[in-house]
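Hi W., the 16G complex you wanted:
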Amino acid sequence: DISLFDASILEEIDFSKCHGEYKPAISHKNPGSNLRLRPLSSGDFNRGFLKLLTQLTQVGEVSKKQFIERFNSMKASPGGYYILVLENTETEEVIASATLVVEFKFIHNAGARGRVEDVVVSKDYRGKQLGKLLLDCLTLLAPKVGCYKLSLECKDPLVDFYTTFGFSKEAQQNYLVQRF
Ligand code: 16G
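Structure:
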């Protein structure tokens, strides 16, 4: 198995600076019994990673070859993709995931913008503070990897959740989209 990015950057996260309150206390180093937080790995195709993503949106038919090709292209963009997963170490299933995408810029002193993407916790694992844990990790990671701002898109009922991590609606900014 190949790791998408060097896991040591997760070790360096100072979780005492997190936004969420955890009862019982969990952290990235100890996310709960039989759970491990780590970077996405090339072997996660066989651990239900894509099936997990179907709980967020449409995934379609993605073959192992396509998964590996996409994984390799992300890995070939160093510092660009931080996909975190939580694995149930007993069942060896990926049960939650969240992504920090880093978009490299010329503006802001050749800075970078971060985006939180594809946050999903499997149905059976909700209510265990895992979404909160993933969000805290990504919001602590973003400035560490050079992001001058971090943004996300979400549905109305989730705005309050994301607000607790320091996100707010920006005045005079709209989210526009077109679909193909
Ligand atoms: C949500 C997700 C986004 C994801 C999209 C998929 C978060 C914070 N936001 O907006 O990352 O890509 O849903 O929906 O996780 P779509 O299939 O309609 O694009």
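The longest strand covers residues 93-104.

W.
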